[in-house]
From TrEMBL:
SMART domains: WD40 (SM00320). WD repeats lie at residues 34-75. GO terms for cellular component: Cul4A-RING E3 ubiquitin ligase complex; nucleotide-excision repair complex. PANTHER family: DNA EXCISION REPAIR PROTEIN ERCC-8 (PTHR46202). It comes from the Eukaryota. This is WD40 repeat-like protein. PROSITE patterns: WD_REPEATS_2, WD_REPEATS_REGION. Signal peptide: none annotated. It comes from Heterodermia speciosa. Residues 179-205 are annotated as: Disordered. Residues 182-198 have a biased composition (Acidic residues). Keywords: WD repeat.
Length: 223
């Protein structure tokens, strides 16, 4: 019986891969050594077309790799990502039919919130917190991290524009865009509510927008 063997390893310091500078292997790093993460790696998944591999680790980094060459794509997602899971932690990559042409969107379970990134640029597009979870609850008191009721898993529903999140408190949540019908209902309710109620709605929405904007800009230090 043939034994399995390792043909090479992913190296976070390697942005050239097996092809090297000239496509012939010049200056390529040795494939027998190197590390993909500075801590334990607890998540590995493919992109839909199989051309890239995405890995997550306890160094609180997500890395994207070219599968043909093994090179690090050098996508940088910033310092806000958290990964304290002892079990598997897998981001979700939206299928191509749900993304703009040439775009790849990644959803990352970041304790009590979901971060939405451009997979290759590393740009933070959105951040979503579970309903009923405040910023203070998400991060605890005095800058302490609070992992109770954190997001433990994400999964995309095939053939739809919808994904689900599992939480450590036993709750499963569905995330999907608001439909045109729901938007029309909101508009009708606004029209029927009168000027005073409209102003009240506007003030509440503005207050929420201001809070969200302040929170996303706030710098948090974890000790």
């Amino acid at each position: 019986m043939a034994h399995a063997g390792c043909l090479g390893v992913l190296d976070m310091e390697d942005s050239l891969g097996v092809w090297g500078d000239d496509g012939l292997g010049t200056n390529a790093r040795p494939s027998a050594r190197g590390k993909a993460h500075m801590g334990a790696c607890n998540g590995v998944l493919w992109t839909e077309n199989g051309r890239h591999l995405v890995t997550a680790g306890h160094d609180e980094r997500v890395r994207v790799w070219h599968t043909e060459s093994g090179a690090n794509a050098l996508a940088h997602f910033g310092p806000i990502m958290k990964n304290t899971h002892l079990s598997t932690l897998l981001p979700v990559i939206a299928p191509e039919y749900a993304s703009s042409p040439g775009g790849h969107i990644m959803f990352y379970p970041n304790e009590k919130e979901i971060l939405v990134f451009d997979l290759f640029e590393g740009t933070l597009l959105k951040r979503r917190r579970a309903p009923g979870v405040t910023f203070a609850q998400a991060h605890g008191s005095a800058g302490q991290r609070n992992v109770r009721n954190s997001i433990t898993s994400l999964v995309w529903r095939a053939g739809n524009i919808e994904f689900y999140s599992a939480h450590s408190d036993g709750v499963i949540r569905s995330w999907k865009p608001r439909t045109a019908e729901e938007a029309e209902v909101d508009e009708d309710e606004t029209v029927e509510g009168g000027d005073e109620e409209n102003e009240s709605r506007k003030r509440k929405r503005q207050a929420l927008d201001d809070v969200f904007r302040d929170l996303t800009k706030q710098k948090i230090t974890f000790t």
